[in-house]
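A quick aside before the break. I want you to see a complete sequence-to-structure record at least once, exactly as it would be stored in a machine-readable document. Don't worry about memorizing anything.
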Amino acid sequence: LVVDNASTDGTPEMLQEEFPQVEVLRLPENQGGAGGFHEGMKRAYEEGFDWLWLMDDDTIPRPEALEALLEAARVFEKRLGRTALLASLVRWTDGSLHPMNTPTPHVSDGELLVEALEMRALPIRSASFVSLLVARWVVEAYGFPIKDYFIWNDDVEYTARILRREKGFWVPQSEVAHHTKKKYTPLHTSSPDRFYYEVRNKIWMLTKSQAWSPKEKAKLGLRLLIDIRQFLKVNSFSPNAWKVVLLGAKDGLWKAPRN
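That is the input. The structure line, written in tokens, reads:
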């Protein structure tokens, strides 16, 4: 299933010509990555699938990537009970780990950590949507990603909200490549105006979401302040950079995302 986010570059025609077996869900307007994943997951859920495998449009999985995730899910369920999420190892085009898509490890539960390491996996606290396997029961219990996040942190908020109560793992045997143009994080985006979403959405997570504990929120808040300072420095403390940060902070504090 390919979600076409109201593209204007000939994507529907290309898909019909080169990949006629693909189901295309064309959205009437660009709803960002968050809206695309929301609608794609909704369609897959309605069609009755037991697992939803989420990927960006520039994710290239190795042939055995899905098999490794499903095998891990089978083993984990047998040994540890039901598993909510399974994330692949994501590399950039040079073979190194992609900084945007490295899951946050969950190491506070020592017994779970040891069990996972014995199975060559790592418990996680959050993950990106660049190759993430989601169990059907997760959608039933937690719904879909929040559309209003548009881009960035929609996957972090969604997975962290789930993994605050459920179990998820990073499975290195499942490997994909993320073919972004640059090996960047939101801090170093080629379009500084997009950093607005990083500020707004992080503040939404800190003030409007139950995804994180108070202690975790304190760490996230400090990280956000450090990233904002670095963003301003990278952009030479320009008036536009300050405008992006201040507008993101204002909307993060005074607006609320809709589900």
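Two observations worth writing down. The longest helix spans residues 214-234. The beta strands are 2-4, 24-26, 51-54, 59-61, 85-91, 104-105, 122-126, 132-135, 168-178. We'll return to this after the break.
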